[in-house]
User: Fold these one by one.
Assistant:
Number 1:
Amino acid sequence: MTTLEIKQAVKRYPNGALAVKGVDVTVEEGELVVFVGPSGCGKSTLLRMVAGLESVTEGEIVLDGRLVNEVEPANRNIAMVFQNYALYPHMTVYRNLAYGLKNRGTPKAEIDAKVREAAKLLQIGDFLERKPSQLSGGQRQRVAMGRAIVRDPAIFLFDEPLSNLDAKLRNQMRLEIKRLQRRLGTAAIYVTHDQVEAMTLADRIVVLNNGEIEQIGAPAEVYGAPASTFVASFIGAPPMNLLEAQTGDGAIVIGETRIAAPVHANGPITLGIRPERAHLANGSGGADGPPMQVDTVEELGAVRLIHGSVGGQHFTANQSADEPIPGDQVRLRLLPDDLHLFDHGTGRRL
Amino acid sequence: MSQDQIAVTGKPAVPVARPASATGAGFGAFVRRHQIVEHIVLLFGVLLMMGPIAVAFTTSTHDPVTIHSEGMQLGFGDNFLPTYEAVIFEQTGFTKQVTGWGMSLNSLILGLGFAIGKIIVSMLAAYAIVYFRFPLGTLCFWVIFSTLLLPLEVRILPSYEVVQGLGLLNSYTGLILPLIASATGTFFFRQFFKSVPNELLEAARIDGAGPFRFFWDILVPLSRTMIAAIFIIMFVVGWNQYLWPILMTTDESFYTVVRGIRQILQVWIGADIPDYNEALGLAIIAMIPPVLIVIIFQRMFIKGLVESEK
């Protein structure tokens, strides 16, 4: 069953600026959808439109089969977790969790049961009588999630909830959010600018750029077959190498090297190659790819990043740490399946 | 007064915060020497501020003849009880309608009415300005703000006219109501509300809190320390009002302590010596409530600052 449908949503600000330019997204029951994109791409605006914190200029937001464009946030059956948690600083954790239920007129006994259940689930039972200022960042994060859980919403909305935490805690909480969401079986939208978070959390990723959707798909799809050069360079770290190249006669020409083209193309294209799929061949054994000029080597422990240039354009390749460090000049070995071809003008996948 | 109090009692917190043990004896000695200098400066300040009050107090325990002939007294006299009994309980004034106690009550009503009224009105005004979009909202704020350029003394005649026209002369309402609009308070609360993270409003909206609930459940508790600070300032201002009550009330039963001090020095028969001791005594009494208010609310004020809630 579909939990949320966003149909042709447009957000135009009074000054005429278009933040969201006609976007279609659906979220199925129990699904975790991640909106990812650079800052200013409209992902937070779109989330806030679903929450009811921003008005919808055009289009429809349908939640559980009900058009909610004009419905107040409190009556939308959503729950939101904010980046800075937005806990009420003067209230105890207990009252923070209970406040929304109290405003709905829920009976005291029921509030108490729900708060304690959520507290148990999030392991914050010992802090119920503390104020947010007495909690650590991770604990505050849990309280913010607790406040969302007690509402028992149709959908959770997460607005960059981990960006205020340090790296280690972020990884831990990321896993916890995913587990929690699975366990509750509630649909969720998660907004982030961090592509690692997007890849690890999402059932489906929505890549946004400039108020438009670049691609929607499962993490593996978005990674394996990026729909545009934007997605290719945004998803994956280090990003996909993009080389300007010529095509013709079923071959791709980079500098003086010709390699077989996996799809038919004619004229200038952009060639994308993931760093980990660019195999280095020391010497010339079996390598028919273009030569690479090496200038910097970065050791990351398990792998090594080789920075240099191919045909005068910047290029990065991954190498396992077991392999020998290459000399100044290496040849690349490229497999046809690892080549991504994009239209030179539009940047769309060919 | 309030600022001096804060400066004096706020200071001892500084040495405690220093990591005195961290860097050996040399630094410790340096800190100690600095503390001595600091304390000398502070003690000098205390002497400067408290000296005149102490002298006023000791002088008030003498009889008027001694004060008249010998001037201010540094030692205690034997007239303490009679003086203060007279100041507090004796009917004074031309019509003998009011006692020191009654005047203190009037001042208290004025001070509290002033402070509470101003806080309520300026909080509501700031709430409207910061959280609601309405036509000319910003203009409204600047109009309110520009009234700071028109102190009470400048607009006292039109103000009198209005109060008189409303038939509010000689009433507590007339004393308090026309003055409870406060540009200063509105400005302070506006700045504070603007510093409250917007997400708090959004979280409250999602939690189903309407405009009234948000104000009462979230903003008012968050403003505790601001309210305390403005209460201190406004209470003292109200308590010390002189010109305004003189114009608005003619009935002696509305006399405030500040007016009473002057009243005592008024001599009806030329040869009488004014009751200097009673005037000084009343001045001392007049000082107690503002000082108490400052001390009580200062604790809350500093506690609020130390707790540092985001």
Note: The interface with chain A takes residues 197, 199-200, 202-209, 213, 217-218, 221-222, 224, 307-310 of chain B (CB under 8 Å).
Number 2:
Amino acid sequence: MTPALMKLENISFAYETLPVLKDISLSTREQDFIGLIGPNGSGKSTLLKIMGAILKPDSGSIQFKESSLPKINKKLFAQSVSWIPQDHPMVFPFKVSEIVLMGRHPYLSPLSFESEEDFEISQRAMETTMTSQFADRYFNEISGGEKQRVMIASALAQDPEMMLLDEPTAALDLKYQIQILSILKNLNARHKMTLVMAMHDLNLASSFCNRLILLDEGQIVRDGTPEQVLKKDILEQVYGIEVDLGSHDGSIRVHPVISR
Amino acid sequence: MTLSLFFLLFIVTLCVAPLIGSSKISLARAFSDSINISSNPDAIILFQVRFPRILLGALAGAALSVAGAIFQALLRNDLAAPFTLGVSSGAALGAVIAIALNLHIYMLGIPVVPLFAFLGSLGAIILVFSLVRTRHGEFPTGVLLLAGVTANFFFAAMVMFIHYLADFSQSFVIIRWLMGGLDITDYKTVLSIAPVVLVGIFSLLFISRDMNLISTGVHSASSRGVNVARIQKIGFIIASLITGTVVATCGPIGFVGLIVPHTVRLFVGPDLRILIPTCMLFGASFLVACDTLARTILAPTEIPVGVITAILGGPFFVWLLKRKRQV
């Protein structure tokens, strides 16, 4: 078994007094493609922000490789782990290429501009995500699916070992959903990128991820392969609806039972 | 490239503005060695009256414009301005208290009215930020804007109250102060605010890339290694400090901090590494040009420069809003 990349132990978190995460322990291994699933409000986004060192847990410890998280230098951590939000409201007219270059921030010192190398790395990131053709357009003027790819390019420019994605396919049409997930699958397979992705679509999660973590009310209900996690009784209990399970091309399909 | 054009504009403005004024002066006579300086009215007008005023205008314009750009970026709101967080109304309250108490005196060589104005702006900043700060040390943008607007109304009401109680001559001084102007100045004033403004702007350049990231979102900035709470604090404090310094001397000159960053952004884009120096140059040129208008348009009477910037600023802003909605 490959060594743990990030290890969370007994993580708890509350925004004000309402607990969001309760006693979460998990570890990610190299080249994991983890789908974080669970109902709305189960704590998926919060867990991703804690793994990305954007929020500090109230208790528990996080280990990334040899260092423990609160002590590690923020810029150094950003060279290894990147995080992509669900939506990207942009007030100012930045160009796509500028947004991608921002991924180089953790490598630059104050007052400096990006070097030739930074431009090359951003260029490659845009090629991987098929976004080079609109490099000179304004970020606010491209479509939702294109924005999501640009944000992945920007996260790639950080040259990370691990990427955290908050519902990367939310609000996208079927074609874009598959396109984004194929890009991620490719990063996972060819570049050995460890991916943790919050996801609502259980069928897409089961087709693309090699590991699923099911959260409910801030706690981990199941953690394992799609076959181990997507069980009829568990899903019915967590989601509170009746489901039927099937399979297609070797991966599990979840069908909600709709009463007519 | 664009930056050098703005630099050229700045130089031209600084060279032309001193030559324009209510009394005609001859450059030849002003620079002549043969006439004693004290009996050379051309030289006195040029060097003692117009130069310091133009330098003050340039510093004030630069400071307010850069502060505007910073507030807009850090609050991710393009309606934010140097005065949004209550800096100017705090300064106004300080100044009005000093005027109402008839403190037209010097304390340790500093005139008391601007000193009170500066303390007022500092007080407003400290008040607003300590109210908004969360237990995690963050400054949530929405709450910050609301607290700033509330502070503005509260201080404005206090100013009105004191104004209402003031006698006729005090009332005149208060009104003049609130309009903002560059008219009463000398080299000493210029030298006292120049270091604060210039060092402030230079320090902002140091954190400009971090602020770029914050302007695209606090969480994604944090995930790229930006210490968001610290950068926000530093940015807000420096921008407020240079605003407070300028307002203490010149009064609240409105709209510069809103118009200039928007205009400049149309030319150079939102990258603060370029936006800050360009705002500095264009803000300086813009305020000096407005002040030249203020000095000459009704000559020999002078209009407060705040009136000119607001009269130009209002329609511009409406145009900007309309244009934005079409995009």
Note: Chain A has two domains: 1-80+161-180+191-231, 90-159.
